[in-house]
Amino acid sequence: RKRRTRLRDYYALATPREGHHQLDLDSPDSFDPHSYFTTLSSTASLPDLLKREIELLNGTSPSSSEIRELDGERQSLVYNHHHELIDASDTIRKMKSRAEALDTSLDALKTSFESVSQLSAATTRAAEPPSAAPPPRPAFNPLTHLSALLSLPILLRALLLHGQAQGQGGDHAPSQAQAHALWGAWEPALRSWEDGGVEGAREVGSECREVLR
User: What is the spatial distance between Cα 200 and Cα 95, in angstroms, rounded to a whole number?
Assistant: First the structure.
């Protein structure tokens, strides 16, 4: 705008009226949308307004092209943001499902560690020499000791196999004693489950007795 003013001053050109440029759609530097709308709505009839709208949207003037271009950019922007929003929602849903699966895995891993710890403690107690007054047995909690109880046949079989391997070069009686001591520590709890009709308890008990036979 400053360059145009300097050119007018240099060539002594007349300065156009400010009001004319405020209503000229092709003069973006001085165009005033509010003045244009006020003037057009107060002087034009409804058919003229509709005709002017069609000219602005479908015409060939620079302003019409800019309007169509801006409208296309607006639609493209809305479309792109809509897809980005959908992608973000899918990503959040996948992350949430993976986090829930991870929580389940962590809970199962925690239970497995507790079971291993309980079986290790029971094995250690079974390996200790008997004393005059054996310590009281801990109360059986189904929620805590269920996994350890279900793993009892595997542990008994492992102790006996270990004893058989040692027996090839020596006495395997200590391993058998550990297995029978472990069974004696857990057998009352398992029998209470069998008497209570807990599903699967009788099969576990039968497998343990078959291993020790």
Answer: 37
Residues 43-66: what's their mean pLDDT? 72
Residue 69 structure tokens? 């271009």
Q: What are phi and psi of 97, to 5 degrees?
A: -65, -40
Residues in the chain: 213
**Sequence-ordered list of residues with C-beta below 8 angstroms from that of 123, at least 6 positions apart, any chain:** 155, 159, 178, 182
Both tokens assigned to 64:
């019409």
Q: Which of 6-10, 109-113, 114-118, 176-180 has the highest mean pLDDT?
A: 176-180
Could you say which DSSP state residue 140 is in?
P
Report domain extents, the chain: 2-43, 105-131+138-212
Q: Which range, 21-35, 43-57, 115-129, is most confident?
A: 43-57
What letter represents residue 22's amino acid? Q
Residue 178 CB burial class (10 angstroms; 0-12, 13-18, ≥19): buried
Rounded Cα–Cα distance for residues 189 and 182 (Å)? 12
36 neighbors 23 (Cβ within 8 angstroms) = yes
Residue among 198, 157, 104, 17 at smallest CA distance from 165? 157
Is residue 145 within 8 A of residue 89, CB to CB? The reply is no
Q: What is the pLDDT of residues 109-120, one digit of tens each?
A: 666 667 666 766
CB-based burial label for 128 (10 Å; 0-12, 13-18, 19+): exposed
